[in-house]
Inverse folding.
C-alpha cells in the first residue's frame, strides 16, 4: 500500500495532527515504506487463526462498587493550560 | 573505584555495614551525574534536593533499625514513570511542563523500600525508538563510544548504569526497550512477564505490550530490583495477582541439565558475524556450566516485526489521543478553534517518529483496513505465541543475541524507520507473546558491547535470572566499565 | 401513497452505581464542576481503568429482565474520536461482543393490544462529560464529573411502527430499569436518554428506507413529537422528489422539529478495537444466579398477580404496575385495608393520584401513607364512614390532620347506624314535607331520592345511606 499526500492529510486529520505541508511527502514516503514492510504478514494464511488481543489468557477482574476517590481538583488543574471556575476551557464548541 | 561503581547488592551491604551513609552515596552519584556523566545526556531531570532528603530519611531509617535491604541505595527512573511533584516528560515536548500528580506503582514500591531516586532518565519520545534519538531532550550518548547510540527507548537508563552514574534504573520494554539498550550499553536488563509489574502510572505506549523492568549491572541486582518492584496492584486490570518469589534467594542454583533452545531464526541472515561469534562463545561457556543445547524453530519470527509495527502503532494512536492540550501538557498559542487547538497542540507537541506511528496506527484501525492490518497482526501474534509454547515443551530457556548488531552511530539510521525497526528483530516477539526476557553482557566487538538474550516461559523470571547469574559468576563482561567512566 | 414508519430506539440508561464504571470516583449528580473527576476520569497519563462489578451486576439484571442471553464472554472496545468532553480521546464501550443480547419486551398499546419489541443488545459503556457554553465569551467550559458514569445502551430492533409504539416501548424500558433499581430514570438530569432511528417506506415494502438518527430526545413527549416530525419531514421530502440522507439530527424542543446536526458532513471513523487496558469480561453461572436472586417481581408478572389476587381489570393493573413505587404503594394500601384490592385501587388511582397531580408530587412524596389510606378504606368497609364522608377524611389526612380514626373522631364523622336516631330524622323530614309525601304516595317513586338527600343532609352525611333507604321506604309505605 502506497500513500499519497492527500491520504496522509486525511489520516493526519483523523488523528488531529498538524503536519507541515513541506513534510507531507516525507511522511507519505515513510508511511508507505512502513506499510509495505508490514504487508509481509500476508505471506501466511491466518484464516483459521483466532486473533490474540492480549498476552494474558485471563478474565477481567472486577472492582467492588465503592467510592474511594476524593476531590483533587486543585491538584489536577494545577497542570491544566486554561481553567476558570473549576472548568477546563477550550475554544467555543459549536453544535 | 568510587562508590558509584559498586552494584546494588554491594551498596546495600555497605550501607548495612555502615561503611558509608546513603547521603554520601547520593552525593557522589549526583556529582558524577553532573560531572563526567553530563555529556551523555542520560538525565532529563535531576532531583537533587528530593534525592538528598530521601537519602537522609534512609539514613535515619537505617539508624532506627527499620531499613529494608535496599534502603538508601540510589537509583533513577525512566522518565515514563510518573513521579509525584516532579516533571514526567516521557521525552516529549508534549509533557515538558507536566508535573505528575501521583507516583507510578513502581515508584511507590521503590520509595517504600527506601531507595533514593536521583532523577528521571532520558528516553525516546513516548518510548518510540531504538536509539534514543527521538527524545525532545536530545540524543543520549553511549558511554562506550560517544559517537554511538545507547539503544532505546530506555537509553538514558542504560547509559547511566553503564557509565556508573547510578547503580540501577527502571526501564520499560514494549518491543525491546529494556533489553536492546542494555545490550548496546553492556549492562543487564530484564523485561518481566507481561502483568508481573503494574503499569499504573507508567505512561502507556502500547498497553498490551508495555512492561516495566529493572536495569542494572548484574542479574543479582535485577533480581533484587524485580522482587521490589513486582507485585499485585489493583489499579491495573492487567496486573497479575500472584506471589512474588524472592528471586535473589534463588540465585546460584546448579544449571546442569538445563535445556536451552537455540532458535535457528535468531542465527540466520541479518545477524552480524562478530555478534554471532560472541554469542557462540557464550554458548560454549554455558555448556561448561552443564546446559544442554538443542536447535529449535520459532517459525514466524520474520513476521514479528511487521505484526508489532501494526499492533504497537494501533494501540499508541489511541493511547496518545489524550494528549490534546485540554487538561494537561502542551497547548498551542491562541487556538482559532477547537480543531486548531487539537491539531497544533499535537502537531507541535509530538516529534516526527511519534507522529508517524500515530498515523500508521490510525490508518491500520480505520474503516476498510482493520482486517488487513490490525486483525491480521493479532492473528500473527497468536502464531508467534504458539511458536514459543511449542518450544517450551522441549526447552527451559531460549538463548540468542539480543540485537543483530552492536550499537550503531548516532544519525546512522535516523532517516530510515524500517531499518531502525529491525534493531528489535530478536526482542519484539517476546513482547507479542508477553514472555520474560533478559539481556546480559557477553563480550565486545570493536569496543562495543554485545548482549546475550535469554527468554523464559511465563513467570519463569527466577530461572531466567539464575541462568544469567550463573553466567556472570564465571564471566566478567558485566564488570567491565567504559574507560572514560571507569 | 401510503407510508409505513419504521422506528428503532437506542436508550442510554445511567446505572445507579455508587462509583464510576472504571474508577472509584462518585457518580453523584450536581457536584461542583470537576470535583468528582479523578485521574482516571480525566484521562491523565499513565492511569488505567478497572471495571466496576456493580455495573456488571446491573447489566446482567437488565438482560434477565428482557429475556436476553447473557454473554459468557464480552469485550470492551475503544471508540476513538476527539471531543473536549471525551478526555481520553476514546470512549470505552462494547462493540462486537456486548454483555447481553437477543431479548424482547412486550408493550401494551392504548387500544389494549400488545406487541413484541425485540431487544437487539445492551452493552456497557462510559458516559462523557459536559460542555457548558453559558456565561463564557468565545470559549466552552468542560465539566468532567459525568465522565465515566456507567451507562447501559439498550438497542431495540426496528420493530416500532408509530410514535405511540416508540413511546410505549420507552416507557416500558423506563419502568423496567426503575423496577430493577439499576437506574433512577431521571430524564431531566439525563439519567435516561434516547436516540431514535427513524425511516419510512411504502406500505407493504419489506425493504428499509434510509434512516435518520434523532439524538437526545429526553422526554416521552419529545420522543412522540420528534418522531412525528421526522416522519412528516421524510415523507414530504420523498414525495417532493428528494431523498433522505443518513445523518444525525437534533430535536429542537422549542420549535418541535428536527434539524441536521452537522453542517459540514464528516464521515465518522471510530476505529473500534479491543481496549488493551481491559481483559475480556467473563460471566459465569454464579454471577447470573446472584443477579437473578436479587431480581424483584417485574411489571408483567406483577400485573398478572394483581389481576388474579385483587380482581383488578387489566387496565387498572397496568396503571398500578407501571412504576414500582406506585405498585408498592398500592400493595401497602391493600394490605392495610385488609385485602380490599378493588377499593384500594380506586382510591389510589382516583382521589390520591388526583391530589398528587394537583400538588405536583410524586407517589413517594405523598403525605398520605399507604397505612393511612388503607386504614381509611377499612373504615369504609366496616361502615364506620360512608364513601362520601371518606372524601372528607382523605382531605383532612392530606392536610396533615392525622390518620383516619383521628380525623373521624375529631371531626365527629362516625356514621350513624342507630336505627332509632335515623327514624327520628326520617320522621322530621316527612313531617316537614307533606306535599312531597303526598306525591310519593300518589306514585312518584323518584321522590325517594329527594327524601334520602334530605335525611342525609339532616345527618350531616353521617347516616348510613343503605339504612336510610330501607327505613324511608318502610315509613313512606305505612
Amino acid at each position: 500500500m502506497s500513500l499519497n499526500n492527500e491520504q496522509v492529510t486525511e489520516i493526519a486529520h483523523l488523528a488531529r495532527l498538524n503536519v507541515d505541508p513541506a513534510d507531507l511527502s516525507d511522511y507519505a514516503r515513510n508511511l508507505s515504506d512502513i506499510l509495505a514492510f508490514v504487508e509481509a504478514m500476508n505471506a501466511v494464511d491466518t484464516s483459521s487463526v483466532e486473533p490474540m488481543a492480549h498476552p494474558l489468557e485471563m478474565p477481567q477482574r472486577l472492582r467492588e462498587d465503592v467510592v474511594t476517590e476524593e476531590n483533587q481538583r486543585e491538584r489536577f488543574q494545577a497542570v491544566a493550560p486554561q481553567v476558570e471556575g473549576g472548568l477546563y476551557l477550550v475554544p467555543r464548541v459549536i453544535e | 573505584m568510587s562508590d558509584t561503581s559498586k552494584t546494588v547488592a554491594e551498596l546495600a551491604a555497605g550501607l548495612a555495614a555502615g561503611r558509608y551513609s546513603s547521603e554520601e552515596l547520593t552525593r557522589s552519584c549526583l556529582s558524577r551525574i553532573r560531572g563526567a556523566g553530563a555529556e551523555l545526556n542520560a538525565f532529563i531531570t535531576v532531583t537533587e534536593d528530593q534525592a538528598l532528603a530521601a537519602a537522609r530519611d534512609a539514613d535515619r531509617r537505617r539508624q532506627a533499625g527499620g531499613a529494608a535491604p535496599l534502603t538508601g541505595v540510589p537509583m533513577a527512573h525512566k522518565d515514563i514513570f510518573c513521579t509525584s511533584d516532579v516533571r514526567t516528560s516521557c521525552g516529549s515536548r508534549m509533557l515538558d511542563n507536566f508535573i505528575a500528580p501521583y507516583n507510578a506503582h513502581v515508584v511507590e514500591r521503590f520509595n517504600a523500600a527506601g531507595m533514593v531516586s536521583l532523577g528521571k532518565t532520558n528516553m525516546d519520545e513516548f518510548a518510540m525508538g531504538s536509539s534514543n534519538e527521538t527524545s525532545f531532550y536530545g540524543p543520549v550518548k553511549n558511554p562506550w563510544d560517544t559517537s554511538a547510540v545507547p539503544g532505546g527507548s530506555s537509553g538514558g537508563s542504560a547509559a547511566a548504569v553503564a557509565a556508573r552514574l547510578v547503580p540501577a534504573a527502571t526501564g520499560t520494554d514494549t518491543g525491546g526497550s529494556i533489553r536492546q539498550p542494555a545490550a548496546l550499553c553492556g549492562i543487564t536488563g530484564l523485561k518481566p512477564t507481561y502483568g508481573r509489574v503494574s503499569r499504573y502510572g507508567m505512561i502507556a505506549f502500547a498497553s498490551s505490550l508495555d512492561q516495566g523492568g529493572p536495569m542494572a549491572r548484574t542479574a543479582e541486582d535485577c533480581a533484587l530490583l524485580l522482587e521490589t518492584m513486582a507485585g499485585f496492584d489493583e489499579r491495573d486490570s492487567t496486573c497479575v495477582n500472584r506471589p512474588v518469589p524472592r528471586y535473589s534467594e534463588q540465585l546460584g542454583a546448579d544449571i546442569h541439565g538445563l535445556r536451552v533452545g537455540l532458535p535457528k531464526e535468531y542465527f540466520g541472515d541479518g545477524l552480524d558475524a562478530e555478534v554471532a561469534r560472541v554469542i557462540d562463545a557464550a554458548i560454549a561457556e554455558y555448556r561448561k556450566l552443564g546446559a544442554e543445547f538443542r536447535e529449535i524453530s520459532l517459525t514466524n519470527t520474520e513476521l514479528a516485526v511487521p505484526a508489532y509495527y501494526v499492533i504497537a502503532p494501533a494501540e499508541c494512536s489511541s493511547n496518545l489521543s489524550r494528549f490534546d492540550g485540554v487538561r494537561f501538557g502542551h497547548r498551542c498559542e491562541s487556538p482559532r478553534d477547537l480543531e486548531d487547538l487539537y491539531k497544533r497542540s499535537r502537531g507541535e507537541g509530538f516529534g516526527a517518529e511519534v507522529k508517524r506511528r500515530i498515523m500508521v496506527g490510525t490508518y491500520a484501525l480505520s474503516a476498510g483496513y482493520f482486517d488487513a492490518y490490525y486483525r491480521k497482526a493479532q492473528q500473527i501474534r497468536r502464531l508467534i505465541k504458539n511458536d514459543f509454547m511449542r518450544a517450551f515443551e522441549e526447552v527451559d530457556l531460549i538463548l540468542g543475541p539480543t540485537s543483530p548488531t552492536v550499537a550503531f552511530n548516532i544519525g546512522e539510521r535516523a532517516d530510515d524507520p524500517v531499518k531502525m525497526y529491525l534493531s528489535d528483530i530478536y526482542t519484539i516477539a517476546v513482547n507479542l507473546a508477553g514472555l520474560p526476557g533478559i539481556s546480559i553482557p557477553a563480550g565486545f566487538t570493536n569496543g562495543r558491547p554485545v548482549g546475550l538474550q535469554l527468554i523464559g516461559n511465563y513467570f519463569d523470571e527466577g530461572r531466567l535470572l539464575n541462568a544469567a547469574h550463573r553466567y556472570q559468576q564465571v564471566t566478567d563482561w558485566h564488570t567491565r566499565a567504559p574507560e572514560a567512566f571507569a | 401513497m401510503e407510508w409505513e414508519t419504521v422506528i428503532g430506539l437506542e436508550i442510554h440508561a445511567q446505572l445507579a452505581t455508587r462509583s464510576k464504571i472504571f474508577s472509584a470516583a462518585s457518580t453523584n449528580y450536581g457536584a461542583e464542576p470537576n470535583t468528582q473527576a479523578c485521574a482516571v476520569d480525566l484521562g491523565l497519563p499513565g492511569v488505567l481503568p478497572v471495571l466496576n462489578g456493580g455495573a456488571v451486576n446491573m447489566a446482567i439484571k437488565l438482560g434477565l429482565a428482557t429475556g436476553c442471553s447473557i454473554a459468557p464472554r464480552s469485550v470492551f472496545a475503544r471508540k476513538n474520536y476527539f471531543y473536549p468532553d471525551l478526555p481520553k480521546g476514546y470512549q470505552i464501550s462494547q462493540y462486537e461482543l456486548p454483555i447481553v443480547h437477543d431479548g424482547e419486551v412486550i408493550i401494551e398499546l392504548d387500544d389494549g393490544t400488545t406487541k413484541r419489541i425485540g431487544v437487539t443488545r445492551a452493552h456497557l459503556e462510559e458516559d462523557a462529560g459536559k460542555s457548558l457554553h453559558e456565561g463564557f465569551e468565545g470559549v466552552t467550559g468542560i465539566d468532567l464529573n459525568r465522565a465515566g458514569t456507567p451507562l447501559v445502551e439498550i438497542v431495540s430492533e426496528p420493530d416500532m411502527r408509530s410514535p405511540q409504539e416508540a413511546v410505549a416501548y420507552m416507557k416500558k424500558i423506563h419502568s423496567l430499569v426503575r423496577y430493577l433499581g439499576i437506574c433512577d430514570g431521571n430524564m431531566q438530569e439525563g439519567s435516561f436518554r434516547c436516540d431514535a432511528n427513524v425511516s419510512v417506506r411504502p406500505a407493504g415494502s419489506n425493504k428499509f428506507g434510509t434512516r435518520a438518527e434523532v439524538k437526545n430526545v429526553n422526554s416521552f413527549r419529545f420522543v412522540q413529537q420528534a418522531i412525528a416530525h421526522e416522519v412528516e419531514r421524510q415523507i414530504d421530502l420523498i414525495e417532493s422528489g428528494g431523498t433522505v440522507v443518513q445523518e444525525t439530527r437534533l430535536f429542537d424542543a422549542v420549535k418541535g422539529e428536527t434539524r441536521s446536526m452537522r453542517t459540514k458532513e464528516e464521515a465518522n471513523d471510530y476505529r473500534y478495537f479491543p481496549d488493551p487496558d481491559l481483559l475480556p469480561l467473563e460471566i459465569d453461572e454464579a454471577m447470573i444466579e446472584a443477579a437473578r436472586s436479587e431480581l424483584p417481581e417485574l411489571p408483567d408478572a406483577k400485573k398478572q398477580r394483581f389481576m388474579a389476587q385483587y380482581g383488578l381489570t387489566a387496565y387498572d393493573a397496568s396503571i398500578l404496575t407501571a412504576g414500582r413505587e406506585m405498585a408498592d404503594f398500592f400493595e401497602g394500601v391493600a394490605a392495610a385495608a385488609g385485602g380490599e384490592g378493588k377499593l384500594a385501587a380506586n382510591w389510589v388511582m382516583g382521589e390520591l393520584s388526583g391530589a398528587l397531580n394537583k400538588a405536583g408530587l410524586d407517589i413517594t412524596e405523598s403525605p398520605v401513607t399507604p397505612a393511612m389510606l388503607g386504614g381509611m378504606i377499612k373504615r369504609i368497609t366496616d361502615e364506620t364512614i360512608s364513601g362520601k364522608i371518606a372524601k372528607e377524611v382523605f382531605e383532612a389526612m392530606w392536610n396533615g390532620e392525622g390518620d383516619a380514626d383521628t380525623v373521624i373522631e375529631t371531626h365527629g364523622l362516625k356514621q350513624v347506624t342507630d336505627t332509632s336516631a335515623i327514624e327520628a330524622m326520617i320522621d322530621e323530614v316527612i313531617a316537614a314535607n307533606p306535599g312531597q309525601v303526598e306525591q310519593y304516595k300518589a306514585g312518584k317513586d323518584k321522590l325517594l331520592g329527594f327524601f334520602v338527600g334530605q335525611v342525609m343532609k339532616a345527618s350531616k352525611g353521617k347516616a348510613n345511606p343503605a339504612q336510610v333507604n330501607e327505613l324511608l321506604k318502610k315509613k313512606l309505605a305505612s
Observations:
- The mean pLDDT of chain A is 94.
- The radius of gyration of chain A is 22 Å.
- The helical segments of chain A are 5-14, 24-38, 73-77.
- The first strand of chain A starts at residue 62 and ends at 63.
